[in-house]
């Protein structure tokens, strides 16, 4: 009798857990429907905008090289150093370094997505000495437990509904770097979310599903900038880079929702298997109980017969 009560209690608990998994999945589906179209549409828009950013950055590099060559020729002719009258770099505080940003999460129930992004992130870190920024409690825990013993800067952002004010401290640090690499989860389909890295500092176009245009053909393209290459470049580096970073935040939110849907779907399948096993055990215990009662009745009859 005790075994039967225990099985019934486990069945009740498992059914409750199934309802919780269903609720989490339905909530994730509703949130995905709300943001999916806007994220994908913005992805296409920013991918084209990032190509313009790439063109501006390459043009600025060529412009600096040209000015350096002109100054060198002037110095050679006059045989004495002169103070340059050319425009200064875009930002005097810019660090000539790379920063690698790991976008994780604060909570769980995202399947193995966060751990896959982390493995991808750590593998890339082996080949560089970039500064590290970690966003999210799960990422900090993974890095402290399994990552290399390297210093990092930590920020915590909500897993959803992030405001611009909450992003400002992160963006303030990012725009100081010459090269910004963001590691995050990319939404491909509901069943597929892949770890990826995006360069949001203009060194290459933002990744999209479609094949990008041949970059080598674009390197030699000349442009006319108004009012100046410096002011245009400053605009892109301060505003477009932050927009690209905000898009990676939205991308990883969408990927996490997809991962949660799949995780809850698998959880429900496992729960169904557990319920079948418990029902089978319940039937088995009931039959054993019936057999025991039948034996007791037969034993009673045999005693009365004597």
Automatic annotation (TrEMBL):
InterPro entries: ATP_synth_F1_ATPase_gsu, ATP_synth_F1_gsu. One of its GO terms (cellular component) is proton-transporting ATP synthase complex. Residues 70-91 are annotated as: Disordered. Residues 254-298 form a coiled coil. GO terms for molecular function: proton-transporting ATP synthase activity, rotational mechanism. It is found in: Membrane. Transmembrane segments: none annotated. Its main location: membrane. It holds the Pfam family ATP-synt. Residues 82-91 have a biased composition (Polar residues). It is a peripheral membrane protein. Keywords: ATP synthesis, CF(1), Coiled coil, Hydrogen ion transport, Ion transport, Membrane, Transport. Produces ATP from ADP in the presence of a proton gradient across the membrane. The gamma chain is believed to be important in regulating ATPase activity and the flow of protons through the CF(0) complex. Belongs to the ATPase gamma chain family. This is ATP synthase gamma chain. It comes from Candidatus Roizmanbacteria bacterium RIFCSPHIGHO2_02_FULL_39_9.
